[in-house]
Design brief:
The chain is an alpha+beta fold. Helix 2 packs antiparallel against helix 4. The mean pLDDT is 94. Bound molecules: flavin mononucleotide.
Length: 203
């Protein structure tokens, strides 16, 4: 079941307040806050402490930002208001100085954990982060010079939220949609897995 809802009051404020907004204030991000966001990512857990994540930060007004922004799908054009666009990169093999590289099945999970920590720290800093899978991965690899054994992961926008009073109605509405989440009973199960997709389709 999917419900419109608000996060519970007793969650950590940084979790409760985090939202993937689409309207950004033009002001630059405090450099110390940026450092803390990526420190949060750096201190995430990872399989074998492999730390397979890398982040390429681009600042609005630079050639690199324009190049990365150029890879976004048209539906993500709002993101070019953000002062920062970041390309998350992942290494999907374990590397060891004396052993041949071997696949790291968990690399993208590790990246997801690092991003989760970064997003929570950003929320604590009063920053909006908005992940985007809607971009051309091959083109992003090309323009940002990402080569094997690294691969492109995801792009995210980061900046302070726009003051809603400064926005026209269409832009205000863009961020005012009710939030929905699958129920906790579906997400958290006990003792036995219940396949809610099979249940719903009657198979
Ligand atoms: C892997 C991933 C890819 C996403 N891709 C896009 C995207 O291309 N465009 C977009 O507007 N939002 C994108 N989102 C944001 C989600 O739509 C958003 O997180 C979700 O609707 C929940 O809203 P919330 O983050 O405000 O809680 C993406 C989020 C994730 C984690």
């Amino acid at each position: 079941m999917t419900d419109a809802m608000h996060p519970p009051e007793d969650l950590l404020p940084a979790l409760r307040n985090r939202r993937s907004l689409r309207n950004f204030a033009p002001r630059p991000v405090d450099p110390d806050a940026v450092t803390r966001v990526f420190e949060a990512a750096r201190w995430a857990p990872s399989g074998g402490n492999g730390q397979p994540w890398r982040f390429v930060l681009t600042r609005r007004g630079t050639h690199a930002y324009e190049a990365l922004a150029g890879t976004l799908k048209p539906g993500n054009a709002w993101a070019t208001d953000a002062p920062l666009l970041i390309l998350a990169v992942v290494r999907s093999v374990h590397v060891h100085p004396e052993k041949p590289p071997r696949p790291n099945r968990d690399a993208r999970l590790d990246l997801g954990l690092a991003l989760g920590q970064a997003f929570v720290q950003a929320s604590e800093e009063g920053l909006v982060t908005h992940a985007m899978g809607g971009f051309d991965l091959e083109e992003a690899a090309r323009v940002m010079h990402v080569t094997a054994p690294y691969e492109v992961g995801i792009v995210f926008a980061m900046g302070y939220p726009a003051d809603p009073a400064t926005l026209d109605e269409e832009r205000r509405e863009r961020d005012a949609k009710p939030r929905t989440r699958v129920s906790l009973d579906t997400v958290l199960q006990e003792d036995r897995f219940l396949n809610d997709v099979e249940e719903a389709s009657g198979t």
